[in-house]
Each structure stands twice: as structure tokens, then as C-alpha cells.
Amino acid sequence: MTIAMVDYGMGNRRSVAKAFEHVGAPITQTADRDELGAADGLVVPGVGAFPEAMRRLRALGLDDVVRAHAERGKPVIGLCLGMQLLFEGSAEHEGATGLGLLPGRVVRLDARGLKLPHIGWNAVSWEQPSPLVAGLPDPAAFYHVHTFVAEPDDPSIVLGTGEYGSPFVSFVARENVFGAQCHPEKSSTHGLALLRNFVGICSAVHAT
Q: 47, 82, 115, 193: which has the highest count of C-beta atoms within 10 A?
């Protein structure tokens, strides 16, 4: 069973890799399309601006790799900006089209006068059960750093919500596609448990 991280040059890739190593699942960091395509699970990291991230993914031909992986029923998880990239588009800066794996767009967080970006720990309440969050308390605390948030068109994909000035979507899930607006790799026990659950999802798919 192999898990690969999509290396398009943005995101705290080393911290994510170390977190996976901590839960006993060493992860390959690569931009090689064949290597990514052969993996059982894909991790899409990200820190920075949505338009630049999509520009880099397209330049390397990795956007199609992620889409094809998801269409084959293999697990994909987007972390922080990586979660936002799973959606159809974003209003950030000049705007950009996303991977289109989930219906909806990314918009600026309505913080109701609170300072942006939102940086710090935030309680996340679960809206529905999922193997991604199995065994986690409700609510569970996760570390967030973001100014923009996803607005799904389909409320049934909302897995967990937080609040900063106003409610925001922190976790999403639809079949084999998952997203976490937080940084699980910086979220201590709960974050590691979440990554361990994703590894379990990948293992189950690999075994079938």
C-alpha cells in the first residue's frame, strides 16, 4: 500500500510527510505522474494562493493526475489550500478554476470584523459520520491558518464545521474524496488520528 503527496512546489510538504511517518505510513513526495498514478492514495497539500497553486498543477500536468486518481475510486485528501483546490473555483485574487472534484466555490471567510487570516485552534463539530473522523471527539480541535473557505453547493458533502466570526466548512467528504481546511500535521493528537484514519481508508481500498 502506497500513499503519495502531490509535489507541485507549494505547501509545508516536509511537515505533512513527517506526520504520516509518525502514524507509520511513510509517504512519497513526487511530481512524477506515473508514480502518483500508481499510488493507492493521494495527498494534495497547499499553502498560499489558489490561482498560483492551480497554475503550477496545470504546468506539471498534475491536475489531470489527481482527477484521474479520484475517478478510479482511489482516496484523495486535500489539506488546507489543497482542500480548496478540490472545488470548482475560487474568488481569491483574480479568481481561478479548480480541480472540480467537488461542487462549489471558495470565497473569503466572513469573519465579521475579526482579524484575517484566521490563525489558531478551532473546535470542529461533525455534521455526519465518516471513516475519516472515526474515533474523534465531537467537537475536536484542529489548527487552522486561512482567509478563504469552501462553499459547497451540495450540503451533504459537509463533514465538519468550525466558527470564526461566522460558521465555516472545515471538513468535506464525498465517497473517496476528502478535504481538511485545517493543518492536521500541526493539530497534535486529533490531527494524527485523522491522518491515521486516511491511511486506513487507503489500506482498505488497496485490499479490495
A: 82
Nearest to 16 by CA among 80, 72, 70: 80
Chain centroid to CA 47: 11
Q: Are strands 177-180 and 166-174 parallel, antiparallel or unpaired?
A: antiparallel
What digits encode the pLDDT tens for the residues 26-45? 899 999 999 999 999 999 99
Q: What are phi and psi of 128, to 5 degrees?
A: -165, 160
**pTM (global) more than 0.90:** yes
- Active site (catalytic) residues: 80, 183, 185
- Cβ-contact 145, 138 below 8 angstroms: no
Judge whether 102 and 159 are in contact, CB under 8 Å.
no
Q: State whether residue 192 is helix, strand or coil.
A: helix
Q: Is 130 helix (H, G, I), strand (E, B) or coil?
A: coil
Domains of the chain (ranges, CATH numbers): 3-207 (3.40.50.880)
Paired sense of beta strands 3-6 and 28-30, if any: parallel
* Cα first-last separation, the chain: 11
186-148-65-160 Cα dihedral, nearest 10 degrees: 60
